[in-house]
Structure formats: C-alpha cells, structure tokens
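Why this split exists: single-chain examples teach little about how molecules sit against one another. For that reason, every record in the complexes split bundles all components of an assembly together and asks for one structure covering all of them. Below is a record exactly as it appears in the raw files.
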Amino acid sequence: MSNYNRNNIPRVKHWYDERVTNVFDDPRITAVGLLFEAHAGLSARFNAQLEEHGLSAVEFEVITRLARSPGNQLRMTDLAAQTSLSTSGVTRVVDRMERDGLLTRRACPNDRRSSYAVVTGSGMQRLNETLPGHLQMIEQWFTGQLDPEALAALLDGLRRVRDAAHPCATAGSDDVSPEQVAATDNANRRH
Amino acid sequence: MSNYNRNNIPRVKHWYDERVTNVFDDPRITAVGLLFEAHAGLSARFNAQLEEHGLSAVEFEVITRLARSPGNQLRMTDLAAQTSLSTSGVTRVVDRMERDGLLTRRACPNDRRSSYAVVTGSGMQRLNETLPGHLQMIEQWFTGQLDPEALAALLDGLRRVRDAAHPCATAGSDDVSPEQVAATDNANRRH
DNA sequence: CGGTTATAGTTGCTCAAGCAGTCGTTGGGC
DNA sequence: GCCCAACGACTGCTTGAGCAACTATAACCG
C-alpha cells in the first residue's frame, strides 16, 4: 500500500479500479460500515419516535442526562461534557428548551459564574411521555433482534471499543475529576 | 410505567429521582449508550485523521463511494441514496469537492437530466493518501481491540441490527432496483 | 403527437452547531 | 489586598445540511 500511487498513470482508471475494489472489500472497512450503518439506522428510527413527542435527538439526550442527575440538574459545562456538544451548543439548546418550558436555568449559589440547567415539571412530563415508546423502539430494532448471549457478546465488544475510542464523558458525576473530563473532552472535539 | 406521572406531586424531586435512576439503568438504555458512544468515539478518531488530509467525514464517504463504483462515478441521486445525504446535500458537497478539484461532474449521455459525479486523478490521489492511515485507525481503535472470535461475534450482532434497522442503501449497484432504494431511503430520512 | 405526470438536479431559505472572542467571576501567588 | 491567569457562560460569525420550490428533461398515455 506504500507504492500505491507510484507512477503517474496514463491508464489511471484500470489500475485504480482494481486496487480500489480490493481495498474496499477490506474487512476493516466492512466492520466500520456495519457499526456506522447500525448506528445510522437506529438513529433514524429513534428520531422518528422522538419527533412524535416534539424532541430532537439532542434535546432528548440533554433532558435525559439532566433527569438522571441528582436534582435533575447539571451545570452547563458538565452538560456539555456529557453530551457531544460544545458549551456554546449547550447554551443554545438550553435556550430553546427553556423557551419551550422544558428546562429552566438556576443560578449556582457558590459560584456565580456557573448556572444549572434544571428540568421543569413540564420537561419531566414530556420525558415520561417519550420514554416508554423509546424503550420499545430499542427493544424492537436493537436488543430484541438478538438472543441473550448474542446480545451479551455484542455489548461486550461494543464496551471494549467504546472504552478504547471514546473519551470518557461523565462530568458532574463523582467518579471523575473535572480536569480529566475537560481534557478528554477537548481531545475529542475537532480543532 | 403507565402510572408514571400520576399525582401532581409536592415531592416531585424524590419521586422522580428514584424512578428515574431506575429507568436509566435499564439495560436497553445502556445498550444504546454503548453503541452510540462507540460510534461517537470512532467518529472523533476518524475525523481527526481525515482532517489531516483535508477531508471531512462526508467528503470521505462521498469519494469512497464513488471510487468503489464502476468507472469511479455515480449519478447524483444514487450518491445521495448511498450516503446519508439529501440530494441537495449532495449537490453542495459535490460543489465543494469539484471546486477543490477532487471531483468533476459529467453529463449522462442517455439521460440529460442526470449527471455523474466522477473522481478526478487528484481525488484518487487524495484518497490513496488518506486510506492507509484510515485503515490503521480502524485497526487501532476498533478491530484491533478484540480477538478474532469476539470481533466476529460483534460484527455478527451488528449485522443483524443493521439489517433490521437500516434502510438498505445500495443504489447504483445492480442488485437493487432504483424504486426500492428510493422508497427505503425516503423512509429513513426525517420528515 | 400533445399533455400530464414523474424524475434529476439545483437554489433560496432556515436552522443547528462550532470557533473565536467577550465579559464577569474565581482563585492562586506575591 | 492586588494582580493575573483560568474558568463559565454567552454572542457574532460562519458553515453545513435539509426542505420546499423551481427548471429541465423524460416517460407515459390518451
């Protein structure tokens, strides 16, 4: 593969055609394709269901992360670290969701720079309306597609890939120091 | 879960806190989390490497799909069906990549509505520069993380999930009729 | 043929998201 | 106590993507 594009080609097309089709049958390419297509497929199914409840995927993730956190709240920065959003992205999602009455901002008592995003009652209600159907979608399109041990094997593999590739993002939880999270998070984000 | 938000709560917080942490420990949520985080992690790693070669993920997918197609070309619509892009999205990616010299448009001889996107020599060169590193990234962060049978189990599971959830997108290939592709593709796309 | 319908691609508009820059706040070093 | 670096959140600007509307071509059908 190092002498790939060595000589500059009158008959480019033939030469590339051969090499290229070979390369794209590479099992590594196939593997990534499977993972990405599975993800894309599930995303599409989930989005459709979330949309019925007036939520985008990002909004659902935000409200979920908040709801599972102590006090149903999280500092903006921590929320950014847990989601795949930048801090400015979080500012704007929270803007929209606050406008829609799903969240509120609350001042942080001991640090006047920070503010919390808190799920409102209306937000909780929306989440409760959305969740059962969401779980059903997961069952239908993902976990229900495999028998228990195949699923376990799949999840085991995914966990190992995740642990290797995914910069851990659990800011606001107690098991990770903020600096650590910030570092890994920045490493993840593009330039 | 049906009597979830039954009584409108003075002690909302406690009640939700309990239910909610339970719900979010649901193995189905965890499973999706693993898949999505694995995907996000790999995407981030791949994007970093692609960026070194001046390609976005979408551009890489486009040029890859074209390069693996007969004649290194595909009609705009078929390209849209194969990628996760709308036709207008494809128009614009191809615009940019044509401006950058990676692709050209070529008129379709037998249908004057259609046009092909064709990879240029320069585009092929760019792809060839990018691919080895990309394969290496896959190896490093994904396939190399697992021993062969664990990987096989993972891929097998992914394949089943993909087949269930992913609207098959192989337009321009010979094994699928265009109408079929269009139908599944539209089903996939949000509203 | 002529007209209607469907298809391929492009374009205007909108919106979501990131980066870089800003402002106020905090905390550490002296 | 004072200063300066670091931090948290927000805002201006740009970019990328989708939808809907439009044009040109093709296909179908009477």
